[in-house]
Amino acid sequence: MIPLFAAYMLWVQRDKLIRSRINTNDNLFSKSGFVLLMSGLALFAFGRFLYILSLQAFAFVVIAVGVIRFVYGNDLFRITAAPIIFLLFMLPIPVSVFNTIAEPLKQFIAYLSTSILLLFNVPLLKDGNVIHLPSISLLVHESCSGIRTTISTFAISFAFAYMFLRSYPLRIAFLIMAIPVGILTNILRVVVIGLLASVFNGDVAMKFHGNAWAFVTPVGIATIFIVGYLFRCYELRNS
Prior knowledge:
10 helices; mainly alpha
């Protein structure tokens, strides 16, 4: 859905695209665009040589930005930069980067989840990133670290900020808000599984675990839109 929405972001700016001036500089081509283009090609060649797929994918976005700035100039670049950068959300996360971030995140999620469960008087024993309950033991795995959920909420926040917010400080603040929302969404999933295991049994908890994304993910998306709506109201009130 990322390229489809990127195309939609361009379509809503179609009037500006039609009115934009192509390379109004005295020089035929943009020097900064040439640097971006060459940098993207170098990154692609380097990633191809080392068989690093994520680097090749990143190079594609850099090349696309470089070509537009190099050939068409600043006007078209300013309009198309955000939709092209939005394509970065399709990039595969390098395994080394994923593991580096996932390890402290899953420990953090396990700690907060157990703290919340203890507030509900749920008997448990935490052993690293494993939560032992009377009827089940929960392993907070890399998939529960919240990285993928955070990327999804960040992508939605990016699109919302581009479409509905005009102030750059508010846009940045809104994007930052997506990070705790993505993490808290996964904490909610672990907490609900723990509560179900405590109130009912491990089988009920595992049934919910298998379909948790259908219940918890909409909560994260709804939270993003509620926060975005509040940001939008604040911006309109102070404009």
